[in-house]
Specification:
The chain is of the alpha/beta class. Helices cover 36% and strands 13% of the residues. It contains ten helices and ten strands.
Length: 327
């Protein structure tokens, strides 16, 4: 299930993303629930990897929980067939630190087993133990993708999306994240007023807390970065910005143009997408090095967060994207 399919499902399902039944998997250890065993708490013994010196070149690399979406019950595709232990967000920081020596993380909203204060404090403690930090929360919630979301012509729909998003600004503040990604829903390019109004409200709420509100080039607006720039300028705040995604474009022309427009507005994080790699470890679906070059030319100083959306084992796929970034 890619993100577009998941968001379409989310908009129509009405299923709560909190997955409260998964709150039981909050104990120590990252070898968690074996696939196919529901919410069983039987655990796999963790093997202690030999200590290696930290690679400082990884300090601007991050990994999103979305890369492992099929190992989280709330986002697992029915067609996914690979075996392996299911994951819980509480164990994600340690697993990523051990597997990849990466300490910048993104947690997508559906992967939170709860939003209760006690659970959030557990996550905060797990981040501390792993010496990791949460950079950004992509707010994939049904209110944003129901009808027009933050851009809906009906004020009551927009206001519901704004209020639901504010909750995640509070969660980001609690967990020490710098931003939340709240996408605009169905934008009317001929009337950006409703969209701008929603983001002004979110920015007014996030700015005193030090939380940036960022927008990704997603879905219908993926190839229309100029619309996002108009939204940023319309809101008129340093606390609104872009989350450029390398892979969310239809072709190389749109990619180069879009990233060139968006990276000057990138505040905290971009998505270093992984789609498909050849035997030499090179991304084959788009020009990955050019994307990095565009970010550098724009003076981007944030985190390159990996979203692997390719075939096969995501653990291997993420390793391939890490290696591509380190080149």
């Amino acid at each position: 299930m890619n993100r577009r399919d998941f968001l379409a499902w989310l908009a129509t399902s009405g299923v709560a993303a909190s997955a409260s039944a998964w709150a039981a998997v909050s104990g120590p250890g990252w070898g968690l629930i074996p696939a196919g065993q529901g919410t069983s708490t039987r655990r796999r013994a963790r093997t202690q990897a030999p200590h290696k010196p930290h690679n400082a070149r990884l300090d601007r690399v991050g990994i999103s929980s979305w890369s492992f979406r099929d190992y989280f019950q709330s986002t697992r595709a029915p067609s996914f067939k690979l075996s392996g232990p299911m994951l819980a967000l509480l164990d994600f920081p340690e697993m990523i630190a051990e597997q990849y020596d990466v300490h910048n993380l993104e947690f997508v909203a559906p992967h939170f087993a709860s939003t209760e204060p006690a659970y959030l404090q557990e996550i905060k403690a797990k981040l501390l133990i792993a010496r990791s930090r949460l950079v950004n929360i992509p707010v994939d919630i049904k209110e944003i993708w129901t009808e027009g979301g933050l851009s809906d012509p009906k004020a009551e729909v927009r206001d519901a999306a704004v209020e639901a998003s504010k909750k995640w600004i509070d969660i980001a503040k609690t967990l020490g994240a710098r931003s939340v990604r709240c996408d605009p829903g169905k934008v009317n390019p001929d009337d950006l007023g409703p969209t701008v109004d929603s983001y002004r409200k979110l920015v007014a709420y996030g700015k005193p807390k030090g939380i940036y509100v960022i927008i990704e080039n997603h879905g219908e607006i993926a190839d229309h970065a100029e619309l996002l720039v108009k939204i940023f300028k319309g809101v008129g705040s340093e606390f609104i910005g872009a989350l450029p995604d390398f892979g969310n474009f239809s072709d190389e022309t749109a990619r180069e143009r879009g990233l060139t427009l968006l990276f000057p507005y990138a505040k905290t994080v971009c998505h270093a997408k992984g789609l498909e790699f050849d035997a030499a470890g090179n991304e084959t679906k788009f020009d990955f090095p050019k994307c990095v070059a565009i970010s550098k030319k724009a003076g981007y100083k944030g985190v390159y967060s990996i979203e692997y959306e390719g075939p096969g084992d995501p653990y291997t796929g993420v390793h391939a994207v890490v290696a591509e970034l380190l080149k």
